[in-house]
Amino acid sequence: MSYSRQSLMCRCYGAMKKCFVFTSPFLLLIAGADKDGNLIQQKLHSICCMVGEGCKYLYDVISDTFSWGIQHVQDTGIFDCNGNLELRVIIASVVLGAYSLLLFSYVWKSRNIRARIRLKQDSCRASINDLKKNIIQVPSKRVEEILSCNFQELRRRLKKGEVTATEALAAFQQKALTENDRLNFLVEPVKEAEDLAKDCDQKTNRDRPLNGIPVSIKENYFMEGYHSTGGMSTLLKYGTVKEDGVLVKVLKHLGAVPFVRTNIPQLMMTFECSNPIYGCTVNPYNLKRGPGGSSGGEGAILGAEASILGWGSDIGGSLRIPSHFCGVYCLKPTAGRLGSKSNEELDEGLVQSLINPTPGPMARDVDTLVEAMKAVLCPFMFELDPEIPPIPFNTEVYESKKKLRIGYYYSDGYVTCIPGVKRGLDEALEGLKNRKHELVEFVVPDVRAMFSELFCKACFGDGSEHVMNMFNDDMVDPTITLIVLMHQFPKFIQKYLSYISTWVTNDRVTGEQMRAMLGVGSVTDWWELTGKVIEFRKSFLQKWKDLELDAVVCPTFPYVAPPTGAVKYLIGGVTYTTLYNVLNFPAGCVPVTKVTAVDQIAMQDYPSNMAVEKFIKKYFSADTGGLPVTVQCVGLPYQEEMVLRVMKEVELGVADLKQS
Ligand SMILES: CCCCCC/C=C\CCCCCCCC(=O)NCCO
């Protein structure tokens, strides 16, 4: 989505609105003035007194200017000041008239937005109902049998013709429809799925690596005939996508059957999963809690076992956070390994050269991720997108038996992990130790500066202008209202608010993040930021090399699935994932445990110095029993195979522990 696609009118409207809203109080003050402008002086004086001595100087300048201005107007003789009512009436009428116009245009605009959203909702609902009515009938015993297969088993049966692709599709469609009624992860079913499945059932196609495997796809992936909105209804205006994106083409070429498109948060830059078009998705383990985001629909559908392989994307944790909250596996590849032409990042305002999003697979075991990566890293994809480095899957690295030297950390130095998360890491490390790997403590560098000074500044380098402009023609989801509202203020007020928030939250990061979202300023500042990112990567790499590490294992996130609507108070946790986007290191998640009653009791000792910690204490001391915990496995750039190997080692190590 390019800037040019943002209608000029919307942007002008937004700018005018802001200008007007912030100047009108002054206009009204003028309207309330007597002929000498006394009232203005009085009001300004009292305001200035409140702000303090420093502002008095400013007051003198301003009030002198006003007096001069009014005197000047009187001198011109445009109106008779003895009856100065006229001036006030004129100004008041202009202000009220403009407000009425604004109100009218707001109501008119809202009606259009709501109509656009309703139209899309109706079409999605119709599509779901259509599938419910016309779903291929498969006996329930057969459905259960298919759903109980793991990926390898399902693929083997499909290949042998013991299960047809049409049956597999129907089984997952049935399960998805049932689970969707409780979790709302579906955006819409893929209408062509049945035709694709029938094609897979041709004998000549059975050898394709993913033949007949039903796959779920995040809404932002380009698919011919479908909208990719990232939860922004304004993007519905541009119609459906004309051509499949690279990964969808590759998946179809390999025989996979995309069967549903799944939900995302509005704007895809938060880890709530709610937007005004498709609504709110909830967590399969606890319906009062969220599935994470932005690939939240994928997290929920996989967590509910209604999909066997899903595809999401990640620029700050959007594959890893939902995996962690929903207890599923994922791989966030190095940005570039799978290219950048598969999914909509309405993020084009967010797509910059420093920190890039990447598509990636999500699944219910490591083997599926391995098979998915092996399959898609194929000549067909390298030809389709020559910008993707033609590096096939390195089986040798994945299958190597060499003992590994693995770094680990329990805290990144900012938000402390809750006890359940710490215990999850304990278990992963113990499993690795039992498998004779060497463990080395690793201290991560300053994540506070990394998050606000590098991640936020890069992602919102334009002062969030591009994304915020889109809201001039859209509704705002309650999960992000606060942040959108804040951006309606002039920058100097936002800056002021950021300092207040540091003071209120006792947390430097909150204020720093707010200021970072005001953008970098100039090209020179952007170059400086580029230099800082390069420097950060260099020094991190050096630390890694000094310790001669093969990989790092650490918490994916400091807490588990939060109640829906609570993410806005908990953003701080995101340093654990954004670190590896800033570094552009591949990282994957492995579920290791679930929160226990003992973990919940241990929350009594959780710190509560910063606001974010107080909220964590509030939201995770109870009602978290049974929620999944994963660990994050990290490798050097382009070493996805090493990450997957470590993930497999963790999976095996934890399984051994549970058996013993
Ligand atoms: C208007 C909403 C802006 C919220 C700004 C909060 C600032 C930083 C938090 C970053 C949270 C990142 C969540 C994950 C984003 C992600 O990976 N998206 C994937 C897009 O493909």
Secondary structure: elements and pairs:
Elements: H1 8-31, H2 38-51, H3 53-76, H4 85-134, H5 140-147, H6 151-160, H7 165-183, E1 186-189, H8 193-200, E2 214-218, H9 246-253, E3 257-262, E4 274-275, E5 279-280, H10 296-303, E6 309-314, H11 320-326, E7 329-332, E8 358-363, H12 366-376, H13 379-384, H14 395-399, E9 405-408, H15 419-434, E10 438-441, H16 447-459, H17 465-470, H18 481-486, H19 491-505, H20 508-516, H21 523-546, E11 551-555, H22 575-582, E12 587-594, H23 597-601, H24 611-620, E13 628-634, H25 640-659
Parallel strand pairs: 2-3, 2-6, 9-10, 9-11
Antiparallel strand pairs: 1-3, 4-5, 6-8, 7-8, 7-12, 11-13, 12-13
Helix pairs in contact: 1-4, 2-3, 5-7, 10-11, 12-25, 15-25, 16-20, 16-21, 16-22, 19-20
The site of the ligand CCCCCC/C=C\CCCCCCCC(=O)NCCO has 21 residues, from strand 6 and helix 18.
Overview of this structure, please?
The protein is built from 25 helices and 13 strands. With 660 residues, it is α/β, with parallel strands linked by helices. The protein folds into 4 domains: 3-109, no CATH class; 135-393, Amidase signature (AS) domain (Amidase signature (AS) enzymes, Alpha-Beta Complex), CATH 3.90.1300.10; 398-442 and 547-660, Amidase signature (AS) domain (Amidase signature (AS) enzymes, Alpha-Beta Complex); 449-534, no CATH class. The strands form 2 sheets. It has an 11-stranded mixed sheet, sandwiched between helices. Strands 4-5 form a two-stranded antiparallel ribbon. Helix 9 (246-253) links the parallel strand 2 (214-218) and strand 3. Helix 5 (140-147) crosses helix 7 (165-183). It is globular. The relative contact order is 0.10. The chain binds ligand L644U5YH.
